[in-house]
Amino acid sequence: MKFIGKLLVYILVAILIVIIALYFLVQTRWGAAQVSSWITVNTDYELNFDLMDHRFSSPTHILLKNVTFGRDGKPATLVAKTVDIGLSSRQVTDPLHMDTITLSDGTLNLSPQTAPLPFQADRLQLNNMAFNSPNMEWDLSAQKVTGGVNPWQPEAGNVLGKKAQIQISAGSLTLNGVETSNVLIQGELNGKEVVLSTIGADMARGSLTGTARRNADGGWVVDNLRLNEIRLQSDKALADFFTPITTLPSFKIGRLEVTDARLQGPDWAVTDLDLSLRNLTLRNGDWQSDDGRLSMNASEFIYGSLHLFDPILNAEFSPQGVALRQFTSRWEGGMIRTSGNWLRNGKALVLDDVAIAGLEYTLPQNWKNQWMAELPTWLNSVTLKKFGLSRNLVIDVDPAFPWQITALDGYGANLQLAKDRQWGVWSGSATLNGAAATFNRVDVRRPSLALNANASTVNISELSAFTERGILEATGTVSQLPPRQTTISLNGRGVPLNVLQQWGWPALPVTGDGNIQLTASGSVQANAPLKPTVNGKLRAINMDKQQVVQTMTGGVVSTAPAVSPSPQPSP
């Protein structure tokens, strides 16, 4: 029995010596190479490390140095200067579930190809790490990352696990192309839901702070977001700039505050923007709100050819639509002011009062095409309950028929300028007059226009102007129904007889000053909306009582020879 006892003691001592030898050998470079080779050959992963260190002062921790880890044949998932693995009694039943894993001074690359990883931890700690997750829902790249995930249970499609607390800071971070620095994120993962209780970052020479959460359906709720002194330049058009938001299942803004921001794109820009937006949800290309508010002002706003200075906008959102409490801006050297409502039922814009003063505006070259173009689906009609014009200059540089009106004044009521997504003068009344005007190089003074429109007809009750000598006066009607039948009655007294020639009428065989009487009717063609085909008669009597009668047929004017009629009173 003594022999057996001694033999067992010798065996135990030998085993202990072997264990001690292996313990020290593993902590050598040769031992590290052997362990790395065994794991690489016998598993689906590749592991390389230079040295393993264990100290009795921290008996539950194993330290690996200069570690490279990844799947066979794939780029490395982890490259780190040190990996500190904290062990616990749980390794007895679950060897690959660690107490803690601390990665320091390296790079962690996570993608759908690398997940799931074979191990888990009660806590994953990052110290001065770079983090990359390309080809995932969030294209993320971060440097100088410090923080932790608790617990860390990676699985396919969820590299951080389904349920975890996260707290991470980063020196720099790029998310879906948006660059930030000095980032702090605290939050919680719960299945497909993400709660970010703290978001802070420096972005575009400014700062961003807020809280947000993502719902299980992929929609986002921004409880609070503040952007301060942002200076952002984008290579995207304005519509594309907001695409990441508008393509989400839903995007709800609880409170958004923007202070002193400057944003710029290829055909748009805004400077010194202050904005406050509350309680608005974007969903399926539309918006919803029960009690939303928007307040905005800026030094300058540019969108295409639209250039506003000092715009101020205050609006309220409700299920019924948008209440435009105030909109004022300097535009084209003048001032514009209005208020009103956009009604969701009928998609109608109703402006209570529109005032435009001191404008110096040149119409865009394609304004006629814009006038005929169909309005967007959200704008079915536009109505001005009341409007006033004061001291405006309007210019059209169309070489075929240039014109301008100086010191244009006017007023009107219940003027409907759009109906069924089509511009026009569909109802209401308006009176316009100017100090002077030029129509196709013909100067006139005191041009004046008064009209009244209803569902069937636009009635022009007054259209007059003083020419170089004499006065022109006209009335007319334009049908609102196809084929838009038009009638015109014009009288000129003591005017140059060639005054109408510059406006598209045929030349008369007589010259000098005299009286003109014109009656014409026609229809507006769909492909030439501002060039009606007319039929009518033009009678001109010069001072010598020579009468010329011209008959117009189908827009082609035929001229009868001059005759010597008996004297007639001037019309």
Keywords:
mainly beta, 571 residues, single chain, 35-stranded mixed beta sheet, 9% helix, disordered C terminus
What report would you give on this structure?
This protein is mainly beta. The chain is 9% helix and 60% strand. The chain is built from 5 helices and 35 strands. It has helices at 2-26, 29-42, 238-241, 243-246, 367-372; strands spanning 45-48, 51-53, 61-71, 78-86, 97-109, 120-133, 140-150, 163-175, 178-190, 193-203, 206-214, 220-228, 231-233, 251-264, 268-283, 286-288, 292-297, 300-303, 306-318, 321-331, 334-343, 348-357, 360-362, 381-396, 403-419, 422-433, 436-439, 442-453, 457-466, 471-479, 485-496, 513-525, 528-542, 547-553, 556-559. It has a 35-stranded mixed sheet that branches. Helix 1 (2-26) crosses helix 2. The longest helix has 25 residues, at 2-26. It is rod-shaped. The chain starts with a helix and ends in a 12-residue tail after the last strand. The model is unreliable at 526-530 and 553-571 (pLDDT under 50).
Per DSSP, the total helix count is 5
Percent helix, as a range, is: under 10%
Whole-number mean pLDDT: 85
Report the sheet-strand fraction: over 45%
Rg, alpha carbons: 40 Å
In brief, what are we looking at here?
With 571 residues, the protein is mostly beta strands. It is built from 5 helices and 35 strands. The chain has a 35-stranded mixed sheet that branches.
